[in-house]
Amino acid sequence: MNRLSGTLAALAAAFLATGIATAAPAADRPDPVSTFTLDNGLQVVVVEDHSAPVLQHMLWYRAGSADEPLGSSGVAHFLEHLLFKGTDTLAPGEFSATVAANGGQDNAFTSYDYTAYYQRVAADRLELMMRMEADRMKNLKLSEEDIATERDVILEERNQRTENEPRALFSEQMGAAQYLNHRYGLPVIGWRHEMEALDRDAALNFYRTYYSPNNAILVVAGDVTPERVRELAETYYGPIPANPDLPERLRSQEPPQTAARRVIFKDPRVAQPYVSRSYLAPERDSGAQEKAAALSLLSEILGGGSTSYLADKLQFQNQVAIYAGAHYGGTSLDATTFDFTIVPENGVSLEEAEAALDAALADFLKDGVDPEQLERIKTQYRAAEIYAGDSLNRMADRYGRALSSGLTVEDVKAWPAVVQAVTAEDIMQAARDVLRPEASVTGWLMRAEPPETVTEAATETPAEEVNQ
Amino acid sequence: MMRFATWIRAGAVAGFLAAGLALPAGAAVEIEDVTTPAGISAWLVEDHSNPFTVLEIRFRGGTSLDQPDKRGAIYLMMGLLEEGSGDLDSRAHARALESIAASVDYDASDDEVSITATFLTESRDEAMALLHDALHDPHFDPDDIDRVRRQVLSSLASDLQDPNAIAGKTFSAMAFGDHPYGSPGEGTIESVSALTRDDIVAAYDAVFARDRLYVGAVGDITAPELSEIVDGLLADLPETGAPLPGKADFQMTGGVTVVPFETPQSVAIFGQKGLDRDDPDFFAAYVLNQILGSGGFESRLMNEVREKRGLTYGVYSYLVPKDHAAIYMGSVASGNDRIAEAVEVIRDEWRRMAEEGVTQEELDKAKTYLTGAFPLRFDGNGRVASIMVGMQMEGLPVDYIATRNDKVNAVTLDDVNRVARELLDPDGLHFVVVGQPIGMTSTPVPGSEG
After folding, report:
1. Distance, in angstroms, between B235 CA and closest chain A CA?
2. Number of other CB atoms surrounding residue B178 within 10 Å
3. Do A152 and B311 count as a contact with CB atoms less than 8 A apart?
4. For residue A235, which of A94, B40, B210, B326 sits 20 to 30 Å off, Cα-Cα?
5. Could you tell me which of A221, A120, A61, A327 has the C-alpha nearest to residue B14?
6. What's the ipTM?
7. Distance CA B70, CA B73 (A)
């Protein structure tokens, strides 16, 4: 969830994690990434690049929607919006206005495992950004009017992202069915009825619990030295005391999943029905990223474009699908998912499309990995490190997401080598482990016949509830 | 071609997260205007910090070159260039690109088609050979045409149920009527279904020619190397292509058009006549829009509609200087019971700006933002290549980047307020609202059957 143009960032994480390898320094260049920790627990990562006099300043909190208390879904994202209101020394809106008046851009986003705030500015404005970001870590001031207006904004955001998008409503139901016990089963933006009840206390309780230096990661990328970042961080973030009562990050975990689930979602606005299939899947763990690396390659092999196994079987050989794809996002604190999407050709039923998917997966488990395809994908992963060298922001983002999802700087740096070391047998083992029907959800997005009259429909629309 | 963008929504999100700060080109973008032996002009930014290059090739004309009864032919043709060429079929071509970790994106919009190639230095020749085949020897195999056509048709069917697409299509049709701008370049289900292989070949012949060619390259490549690949790829193209369409008259008048669609949140697109890119007042209008509705939290529309009233998640306005018409447009989305108020606030702000203009303080802040944020745009080889080719198409000089901020700073308070008075037409602003807006009805359109 982004404050302005944003997002289902968790899904984004999934997309970013597939395909693009972690940027590692070329052997002939010094490592641009360094890290240190302040006495109050604030972890700092610096990505140096002096090719232009600009930088990105990001503060990541290890607090996302999966850390929310029961009954307050959406409060992490709501608080993210509210952090742009005032503090003891800044008027509401003054933060962004100040960034803009300094020729910079700022925004923020929320996902299951993190909330992050960032500014892109000229390098000589770093001190001002740190002063303001450190200020709002502790000194937020919220009026009841701020709360009421911004709650309307997030409800309109949910309207825009979810209520107006049958695919998003369907995806929400898929997630809820996938997770029996974990908060990943709730949408980041929140369920509407709980969002409507979010108040000042809910926002401030979340803020006081999680917003502290010992629960944050500072990432600065661009034209700056680690020494300068340390000096400024000591000055502005250093004086903020650690929160001694920071709760340990324990979420309810999934029990063994023992029953295949089905979701059928119908909406009159659906023009193109499709099948989704998700399987509970392991995430990247610190010091143990091998399984996730194998799953990343598996998703590319099965559904990473027109040359993938599923595209070959379902789009070219059988022509049952106009699109067949697979996705896996491994950067996650707890168990994630491995997903398939099959969009059937006109005249092919969802039942047939699903059967074709299952037949293709069964064939794959017999056929095994095509060594040439695996080599091509590994080549692309190696090249992605070169291409990523062009995008400092991508590096900053990668470190922030990894470190707020239980990984370390060393894990991020090790990832490309871990991916290259994966064997065909590792991939087949990962496939056998993850493609378990009992841990799966199969979803059909279908067109519903429109209701009889417009009047009836209007009184049923959720938007009516917003203003009550 | 993002044929699946509609399903894979998160792709856009990834784009947002991945976009952003990549600094190599940065503030010191030095463009060299390279003229190849064959006489093609290509703009180059050399940057040897990473061993790869982005090559951007565009042809003016775009989907507006479609014959009237062949709408969608050029869009479909562009989607077929990667589906088999030379000695390779569709997937062999894709595998060949993957094996050298190169990528080529093809796109088509109202005024141009574009080809963006990203390739490693070590396999530049192989990448260029594949691109040469795609551009000069595409198969347009009937099976591939049908397969890609079905993907396009699926996307068109989805657009019929998408409030944003409905709003855009309705707005374009009202604004531009029978001009190609008046209908989507992707075509309609009917027109795309009827396209033949001959139509695809005709679209190909119409689009690619040297008299409408613009080239930019950024990355690990020298001027002589660039000359060689550009001539190898493009020198053999025909000299001329299909004639460009004429000017498009903006036919919209002020009012509201409601398109009933059952969905909780109404989506609105609004607009009025705009300003050409080469108009002497363009910079003043650009600064004006920064203050009125650029989408930053400081813009008046965002402040009034979202920050003060909580009526929307986002409201934006933007100047759209196209090749054959200029519009000033905007968009907003609000719950069905609140969209009427949002529209009223936007029209009031339009009027207030026309009548009162901006303050010196607003102008100063807008200038600081625009000049400070300008260097942040040059975030990576792909972005720089795209900006460079865009500059060429707009007829801007090669030193534009160095002088652009001076032009912003030269805008005076009198300029902005005069342009606000002359340009902004609150009564001429037309809103197309898709949804079930409460308290809104369509304005009768003069001269139409209504």
Report:
1. 29
2. 11
3. yes
4. A94
5. A327
6. 0.90
7. 6
Tell me if A9-236 shares its fold with A261-447.
yes
Interface test with A, best of B99, B130, B298, B313 (most A CBs within 10 A): B313
pLDDT tens digits for A173-206? 999 999 999 999 999 999 999 999 999 999 999 9
- Fold (topology level) of B255-435: Cytochrome Bc1 Complex; Chain A, domain 1 (3.30.830)
For residue B370, the chain A residue with the least C-alpha distance is: A103
Residue B15, both tokens: 């784009």
Q: How far off is chain B from A245, nearest CA to CA, in Å? A: 32
> Quick check: A96 and B296 CB within 8 A?
yes
Q: Return the CATH number of A9-236, one of 3.30.470.20, 3.30.457.10, 3.40.30.10, 3.30.830.10.
A: 3.30.830.10
State residue A321's pLDDT score.
Answer: 97
Question: Any idea which fold B29-234 has?
Answer: Cytochrome Bc1 Complex; Chain A, domain 1 (3.30.830)
Is A80 annotated as catalytic? yes
Helical H runs in A107-199?
126-138, 144-158, 166-178, 192-195
Quote the CA–CA distance of A147 and A75 in Å, as a whole number.
12
**Which of B446, B447, B445 lies closest to B170, judged by CA?**
B445
Residues of A in contact with B155 (CB under 8 A): 272
A389: how many CB neighbours lie within 10 A of its CB? Answer: 24
Facing residue for A222 by CB, picked from B21, B151, B310 = B21
pLDDT single digits (tens) B84-129? 999 999 999 999 999 999 999 999 999 999 999 999 999 999 999 9
Q: Are B63 and B110 in contact (CB under 8 A)?
A: yes
Residue of chain A minimizing CA distance to B164:
A164
Helix (H, G, I), strand (E, B) or coil at A13: helix
Contact status, residue B145 vs residue B200, Cβ threshold 8 Å: yes
Burial of B447 (0-12, 13-18, 19+ CB in 10 A): exposed
- Report pTM: 0.90
Angle at B216 between CA B212 and CA B222, to 5 degrees: 135
**Cβ–Cβ below 8 Å for A387 and B151:** no
Contacts of A318 in chain B (CB under 8 A): none
pLDDT-based confidence at A457, cuts 50/70/90?
very low
Which residues of chain B carry a pLDDT beneath 70?
Answer: 1-28, 445-450
Taking CA–CA distances from B90, the nearest residue in chain A reads A306
Task: Identify the pLDDT of residue A466.
Answer: 26
Residues A80, A172, A300, A354: which is the catalytic one?
A80
Which of B10, B95, B162 shows the shortest C-beta gap to A12? B10
What are the domain boundaries of chain B?
29-234, 255-435
Q: What is the DSSP string of B58-109?
A: EEETGGGGS-GGGTTHHHHHHHHTTSEETTEEHHHHHHHHHHTT-EEEEEE-
- Complete DSSP assignment for B377-431: G--SHHHHHHHHHHHHHTT--TTHHHHHHHHHHT--HHHHHHHHHHH--TTT-EE
Give the domain A261-447 fold.
Cytochrome Bc1 Complex; Chain A, domain 1 (3.30.830)
